[in-house]
TrEMBL record:
Domain of life: Bacteria
Stated name of the protein: LamG domain-containing protein
Amino acid sequence: MYTQKTLIMLVIGLSLALLVLACVGWLLELRAIPEPVVYFSDEFQSLDNWTVIDTTWLTEFSERQGVAALSRHLYVAPNIHRDIQLEESPPDNVVWHFSTRIDSFTEEAFTLGGIYFPTESVVIVMDRKGKIGVAGNIFEIPKYTSTRRHVISKEKWHEVYVHINNSDKAINIYLDNAIVYRGEWNSPSYPVKELRLGTVWLKGAGEYGAPTSVYYDQVSIANEGILPRPTLASYIRSLLNG
C-alpha cells in the first residue's frame, strides 16, 4: 500500500517527466521553424508607392520613425492600398504582418486591413472590446477570437501576423506573441495581388466604421519564419488546449 510520501514522490516524478517531454517537443518545434524569408516589406519611409485616402505621412510618432496616420477628413473611408507584384512568393504558406496603433474609430467594429488573392481575400477586423477577427466579405458575419487575455489595447502599438497555411488548410492570427485565432482556409493564397490598410468596408454584417485616429508603422509579406517564436509556457498551454 502506498504511503502519502510515496504518492507525492510519484506525482513529482511524473510531473518532471512530462515537463521534460514538453521541453523536448518545444525545442523540436523551434528547430522546425524555417529561416525568415521576406518577399515584401515597407517601413513607411514614404507613401510614394501607395494610393492614399485621408492618410498623412508622419516622420516620427509615438517613438516610431515613418508612420502612416489615417483619420477621416475629406472621405468616409480612410485607407492606403497598393498592388503587389512579387518576384517570388510562397505558394503554400504566407504570412502577412503589420504594426498598428488604434486610438479611435466609429461604429462597433473596424477593418484593420485586407490581403487580396486572385479568388479570395482575408480582411482582419476588431471590435470595441479589442477582440481581433477575420471576415471574407462585407455580408459575412466576422469571426472573432474568444480569448479575453489577448486583445488590442487603444493607444498602444501591436504586431499582427496573419498566417495562411495552404498545406494544412488553416488560417491563424497572432496578436503580438500569442496566437489568438485558428480557422479553416480552403482557397489558394498565391499570388498576392493587393494589400490594403485601414477601411475595407463600411457597415455591412460587421457594423464596420471608419478610422478617426489609426496608425501603421510597418507591413510585410514573408514565410512563416517571421512568426513569433513560441515560449515554453505558450507551447505547454497549446498542448493543454489540444
